[in-house]
Structures are given as C-alpha cells and as structure tokens.
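User: What would this chain look like folded?
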Amino acid sequence: MKRQSNVSVYPLTPSRRPTSASVLVSDGAGGMRPIVDRRFDDGEWPVHLRVPARRAASWMAQLDAECELRGHATSSLSQLDPTENSGTSHVSLGKGANPTAVEIVWERARDKLLLISARPSGEPSPALAEIRAFLAAVTRACRANRKKRMHRRAYLTYEGLPWRGELWLSPNLCLGPPTMRGDYLNDPQIIIVDAVVEAVASRGINAEFGRVLRELIIFLDVIIGIRMSQQQDKRVWVNTVDDKGRYTRCELRQSAYYELDPEPKMPVPGSHRAVPNKHVQRPGLGALGIRPDDAELTVPDDIHGLWHQLQSLPEPRRRQFLQAGNAYSIAQLMWPDQRTTITSFLVVACEALKPSGRKYRGANVYDVIASLQGAAVAETLRTLALYPQGVRSQLFHHGTVVSDELYEYPAGRNVNTQLSDVSDRPEVAGHELTASGQCDGHFG
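Assistant: Here's the prediction, encoded as structure tokens.
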C-alpha cells in the first residue's frame, strides 16, 4: 500500500468528503485543541499496515486498548457509509497544544482489508521505529484476542414492592438490594445490578455492560411482569412545603439513587439473604397484583433456569426473543395514556415470535397464539369487539386510535377489557420461546 509524496492519502469521492464539523478535545494541559480530519492531507505517510478483514473490527478496538494501557490520549473522527468506512485518529504521547503524537488514517471497504497509514506529529516528533513498534503491539494484542475483565454497576428503578434480597443469575451477575428505601411500599424502588464483564478496553466494557443491562431489563419485564428501567441521573424541580402545606421553595436538583460506598465492587455471595421465590405454573406469570400480606418482591422459582436458557439460545432465537420482549416493554411504557398503542405493540410482540421465512410472512398474531396455546384461545382474541390485529393495522397504517387518547369514545367502547385479554399473550409466548428455544408451532 504505497503512498506517494504530495498526494492526498485518500482521494475525494462522492461518498468520502472532509467533515465540516469543528470538534475540540482537551489537550491534557488545561486547554483545548481541534480534531483535524487528516484523510485528505498532502504529504508522506511512511508507516503502512494491512489488517485482514476478519480482524479489522478487533484491531481498532485493540488500538483503543493499547492507548489506554500506555496512558495515551486518543481522539478520532470517522465516516461510516454503506460501502466503506474511513477515519482519522490522533494518539497523543504527551500533553499540550502540539504534543508528541502519532497521526493515523484508515479505510475499509465493506468486508475487505483494513488499510492503515501513520506518521509522526508534534514537537518533538516520535521516531518511525517507535510508531512501528506501537502498531505491532496492537497487532499482537489483536492476534492474542486480549481482553480485560472489569466490574460495573447500574441501578434499575421500578414501581412496586421493594427488592430486599440478592439474586445471582450467574457468578458474574448479581441483583442486590439498596441500603436505603422509602417509607412506603409504593415509593420508587431500586435494584442494584453488579456485574463483571469482559471486553476489549473500557469502551468495550461499557458497551458489553450496556448489552447485559438491556437483555436483563427485557428478561425481567417478560418473566416477572414488572416494567423496570435503568436509572437516569438528571436534574428535576424539587419543592419544599411548610407545616401548613404551602409551597415555600422550588429548586433544580440532581435526582438519582446511589450507594454511598466510595469504591463500588462486586459483592460477595451471601452478603444478603436470597430474594424469595414462588412457584409459577407455566406458561403464564401466575397471580399478579399485591396482596395484604406482601412485603417484598418475589421471583419465579424457575428464573435461574430461564436466564441460563436465554443465554444458551442460538443467536437467531435469542435475538427473536429480545425483539419480541422489546416490543412488549414498549407497550408497558405507554400505560395508561396510550392504550391503542399498548394493544398494537402487544400484537407486534406476538408477531415477532413467528418463524422466519417466506412461508410464515403472512402469519399474524392469531396464528402465533394458536400455535402456542391452541386455536380456541386465538379465536377468543379474533372475536373481540375491537379485534387486536385490526387495532394494530389501523394505528400503524392510519394513526387511528380506538380508546380515548384524543377524545372520549361512546359508552361501551372501552379498550381496558380488551387489554386484559391481550396483555398476557406475549408473556406466555415469550416464555415458550425462552424455555423451549423454539416457536415453530403449527401455523394455519
């Protein structure tokens, strides 16, 4: 991959253009410096490298990891297109406005080699041998598939009974109780999620932990039947009331729950008692609601087996479950204001479970339910006054609402009754897919 002097490293093409954005990053010395798109610079690029397509994504991740390991600051710009990706990276070996640095440009056509060019920059400039040694270290790490393991923590929030024990879904994933709670059972509740995740570099660790959290939230939503979400640290208006109930002050404050331990770490199994469990007759969620003697949230006694089954599903089945669960979670978020949308996304959640292939392209929610729970159950849904498939089609194709989101409907057209008939179908179907790994019933 020879580069000639005084020729732009990458020629302009209709899909490859210099960025018009102006991006500033910290220079490590209290100032700011711009990230410059070097892909079209004239001049020599004396160091070149070709990375096989099968290692291209890993090599870029290992570049970040090597910089992190050596304490080098990096800044990058990239252009991602359907046919090719390209970008520029600046690796600072020092601090200041013009530190010793390595400038890197790269390009990769879809499913092709990763082509890399590098050159010294800054004052004083690094030697070419140093740059080659640095890139060689990245390549060795790539070939060795070097990874790191790190602990990460997040907080899930939900409405319902408090979480008072610990639940280990795997040796590297624990759902623990908060040390502080509200005074009432219906106060916002917290679950502490501690995990050890493995990936390339801190950026990869964070991405992998985010994936685990998304899967966990969908899983809990479908299997337990409670909508949970990751806590968002944000500013909200907080009021103060005097002893006569009069507002005396309103101010913006941060709103989030955090444990007060200075250095969060993975808990030790047995630090808390286990979350109590209950037997649930599957398929289904069992009895829902809060009884007078309930004091804490319980989990199904098969939750460990279902989590392990989900992790062991073939990737197409696993993605199918997550896509269906995601549609189900969206439906839960809409309650109670958007009941037409709730019904529609419950239908989508069921439709997401139908087998792939042209043979099943025309199958709908009734076919899915019939294949899993029998034709009689499907016929019950089909004969509802507001039949689910029609509600879904009218909303998505015409924006038609069948409840009172926009105006009051005449008496007798209340969608709440229908929701009670429809809402548990995706949970039942999702459980079947998780437990058996298949949703290939007999479709009409």
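Residues 1-8, 409-413 have pLDDT under 50 and may be disordered. If you want, I can go into more detail on any region.
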